[in-house]
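Annex B. Sample input.
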Amino acid sequence: MTDRHQLLSTCDALLQPERFRDYGPNGLQVEGRLQVKKIVSGVTASLALIEAAIAAQADTLFVHHGLFWRGQNGCVTGWMRQRLALLLAHDINLLAYHLPLDAHPALGNNAQLGLRLGLQASQRFGEQDLGFLGVRVDGPSFASPQALSEHIQQQLNRPVTLVGGKPGEVKKIAWCTGGAQNYFEAAIAAGADVFITGEISEPQAHYARECGVAFLACGHHASERYGAPAVAAHVASQLGLAHEFIDIDNPA
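Annex B, continued. Sample output.
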């Protein structure tokens, strides 16, 4: 058992949210009980995850996508009221870390996705150094973008959208999880043969075809399943807390 203040300071020391310009508040978004015994981690603070955390008797929810984002109208109605009402009624702390969770060099979303796919980063690129660039470390280079796409599909157990690229061996692989399609041009400039992220938008399909660099979209949720449980498990181990990861499936 520990208290909320110690948990928050441990997470902040690990993830260093003060280093990032982000789209919403990082850290404690909803205050619950002071004493903490069990953390449930997940990708998004959805109603389904909150309900699952209650059923798991957690007092803290640790997520990548919290409740509050820049540009919201601030009204506590509809889905926001439902989620907040449950958190407050059950006295559950909500901790959310967005870009800091993407960026951590060992436990973050990008690092953990690389580990899952057998990739090792040798450099960073893009705004706030969120993009990772490296090579395959668990075997020879991928024979083609299609071979890499099939490998990702097997590892993540979901379809992958592949656009563009050149035939032949893939050596330099860039990746940035979630909705990082706007990092594609920076990945091209960094010398990548392929770029992996969660989503693709209309312009990137043209860039991929015209620049000869393959774009692979493997799902926003699917690419960001690994950072939250890695960080929460690490912190829970440090503080002597119980931890459980609950994955609420999302096709996006």
